[in-house]
């Protein structure tokens, strides 16, 4: 017998809950904020909207289904199953946080606070969950298959991201490495920089775009479903031993960017989650390409 679908509700701790965890009581949190010219009421209102949205979605799960919840901080320890329908209740960034742990499960993005989120990935309101859940579990559900970026090290560590992967120093030091491109006869270039960013069309509205605009780049950034990546070197430094001729480009499917580390310690992390980083050291190589898997986001 096949298992009934399981609705996995992904959410995150609210700002109000974080304030209570730090200060102990509502009154102490209110005093802390008021001393800085802010009100706790707006924070609590956002908390209540988020919790109402989560409760509404939970109540919309079909009675014959199983359901569970997972907080953002626990995603790296949660085991998703092939029969899961993943419902992200929160902000656009929470979809990206969950994407790296999925293997083709359909994802429904629910905007928990309409008007405060762009709604690029959390496209639906909570009241649509009742219709969307059975629709997502069906064979004919319409999805956007969003490109992801993958990093693999020479010792088989692997990292996935929906927006971008950063490779560079963990602090404010200089990253030293040799950068090479697949499928070209041009020799690799030694570089010193603030790090390298490789991202998708989904990420082209965020960090990638800021670098693109900052340097008035003429690259045509990819769209979310394009099987291409854009990459930028941050603040490359010219010297007698390091170059700056390769600081941006596009990677088609099947081509990659290869960095061989020449620093004591570099890190690679995806979508801004520094707590889930790969550690890289002298002589290691990391290869960044279009990922074979995609995020299946319900229309």
Written account of the structure:
The structure is a single chain. The protein is of the alpha+beta class and 299 residues long. The chain is 21% helix and 33% strand. The protein contains six helices and 16 strands. Strands 1, 2, 3, 4, 5, 6, 8, 9, 13 and 16 form a ten-stranded mixed β-sheet that branches. Strands 12-11-10-7-14-15 form a six-stranded antiparallel β-sheet, covered by helices on one side. A hairpin with a 7-residue loop joins strand 8 and strand 9. Helix 1 (15-23) crosses helix 2 (26-34). The radius of gyration is 21 Å and the shape is globular. The model has no long low-confidence stretch (mean pLDDT 94).
Short structural description:
This protein has 299 residues and is of the alpha+beta class. Helix content is 21%, strand content 33%.
Task: Give the helices and strands, then pairings.
Layout: E1 6-11, H1 15-23, H2 26-34, H3 40-59, E2 66-71, E3 84-90, H4 92-99, E4 106-111, H5 129-137, E5 143-153, E6 158-161, E7 164-168, E8 175-181, E9 189-193, E10 196-199, H6 207-214, E11 228-233, E12 248-252, E13 256-261, E14 266-270, E15 278-280, E16 285-298
Parallel strand pairs: 1-2, 1-3, 3-4, 4-16
Antiparallel strand pairs: 5-6, 5-16, 7-10, 7-14, 8-9, 8-13, 10-11, 11-12, 13-16, 14-15
Report the major sheet.
Answer: 10 strands, mixed
Helix content: 10-25%
Unreliably modeled segments: none
Compute the average pLDDT. 94
State the order of secondary-structure elements, H for helix, E for strand.
Answer: EHHHEEHEHEEEEEEHEEEEEE
Count of discrete alpha- or pi-helical segments spanning 4 or more residues:
6
Q: What distance separates the N and C termini? A: 30 Å
Rough outline? globular
Radius of gyration: 21 Å
Structural class: alpha+beta
Strand content: 25-35%
How many strand segments? 16
